[in-house]
Amino acid sequence: MQLPHISLEIDGPVALLTLKGDDESNRVSSAMCEDLAATVEWIRDDEGVRVVVVTGEGAGFSGGTEEAVKEMREAGEEAIVGASRYIARLPMPVVAAINGDACGVGLELALACDLRIASDEATFAMDQIRHGMMPWDGGTQRLPRLLGRGRGGAMILTGMTVDAEEALGMGLVHALFPKDSLRDEVITLARKIAGHAPIALEYAKETINKGMDMTLDQGLRLEQDLTVILQSTSDRAEGIRSFLERRKAEFHGE
């Protein structure tokens, strides 16, 4: 699947979604949001996709805050709100392969992914404040929840840039790899995740994400409810059989 601002490659159970901006920064634009919406719906309809990898074309992941702000001022804020929301709609695990700088809306998009694996040359910034703006696509909510109010708030209020090692140390990314090997490492991880039961993966992701907005008791109840539903699946029975028979499980999402 090829669109002007998004390309999609399907490799077995792994979908590789590549951002293609109007410039080298792969900035999020209204046109990219439209292509992203269409791509996400296509992925949701493909029952064979179990994990999605999001990366950027060329040297960067996604940035260009200054250009995005200009578009907002010309076309209205609603023009480029939604990139993160589209990624967050995906029910299966989503891994960001951050091959270069992730700034502004680009970092907000990465935060909507479940895992973030980065190049050791990447930099990160929530820099809208530098342009008289504030994060508008989930950054004020997702970044403090991930890093805590102190670190997350500091990145937002100062517009500071952090390098890859700093990002790893604060928990913004989960692992670093040399840029040349990043894609292969992330695809390997995605395939490992895809080998797990897809319904269990979907329920686990749902419980994690929804539970963040619930009280502990409510979150525990959601976990219990989805666990009960999971007991009725064929994959759950296959997991038990494969364990007892000491063989690799074959899950079919049923």
Outline the secondary-structure elements:
Blueprint: E1 6-11, E2 14-19, H1 30-45, E3 51-56, H2 65-75, H3 83-88, E4 94-98, E5 102-103, H4 105-111, E6 115-119, E7 123-125, H5 139-147, H6 149-158, E8 161-163, H7 164-170, E9 175-177, H8 179-194, H9 198-211, H10 216-230, H11 234-244
Parallel strand pairs: 2-3, 3-4, 4-6, 5-7, 6-9
Antiparallel strand pairs: 1-2, 7-8
Helix pairs in contact: 5-6, 9-10
Description:
With 254 residues, the chain is an alpha/beta fold. It is built from 11 helices and 9 strands. The protein has helices at residues 30-45, 65-75, 83-88, 105-111, 139-147, 149-158, 164-170, 179-194, 198-211, 216-230, 234-244; strands at residues 6-11, 14-19, 51-56, 94-98, 102-103, 115-119, 123-125, 161-163, 175-177. Strands 1-2-3-4-6-9 form a 6-stranded mixed β-sheet, with helices on both faces. The protein has a 3-stranded mixed β-sheet with strand order 5-7-8. α9 (198-211) packs antiparallel against α10 (216-230). It is globular, with a radius of gyration of 19 Å. The mean pLDDT is 88.
